Amino acid sequence: MFFYLFFSFVVAQRLIELVIARRNEAQMKAKGAFEAGQNHYKWIVLMHTAFLISLFGEGGLLGNGPVQWWYIPFALFIVTQCLRIWSLVSLGQFWNTKIIILPGAKVVARGPYRFMRHPNYVIVATEIIVIPLIFQAYITAIVFTILNAIVLSFRIRVEEQALQQATNYYETFSKRPRFFPKETK
């Protein structure tokens, strides 16, 4: 029962995010924004859909219930949700599942973006590991961690290139780490 409630929450959250992303995309395009990286977006959608299907199969249908130490990955999941909301609120209308670029705009450098360039990708990568671990879906955790790394290696390159060409991205983030904050002196 816990799996199905948890799974439903994750799916509902993803659907809400898609609604927010579409609204933000429309607002940004009305201001002159363009989409970059359209060719790889379908692979991101496919990977995330396959992740949910795999999680449902391995963690739900074939699962043995939550792992004995479920509270550890569950606590990490809760932390990622707080970070997800912080990231989404910090980006505001600039948050999207697609790469939507508003030429001449100043990139957002507040919230978690003060510490790293891509906190949302760290959040997603963490979720792809910890959600399956809660339900002993080890194959899902391993396979989709690898697939996500491959997809992100393309996406981040395209996103950063588009941001550098159309915004103040380089000036703002050239000395900021991509994923993990550096210790400050």
Automatic annotation (TrEMBL):
GO terms for cellular component: membrane. Its main location: membrane. GO terms for molecular function: protein C-terminal S-isoprenylcysteine carboxyl O-methyltransferase activity. Keywords: Membrane, Methyltransferase, Transferase, Transmembrane, Transmembrane helix. The chain crosses the membrane at residues 40-57, 69-89, 121-147. One of its GO terms (biological process) is methylation. PANTHER family: BLL3993 PROTEIN (PTHR43847). This is Isoprenylcysteine carboxyl methyltransferase. The lineage of its organism: Bacteria, Bacillati, Bacillota, Bacilli, Bacillales.
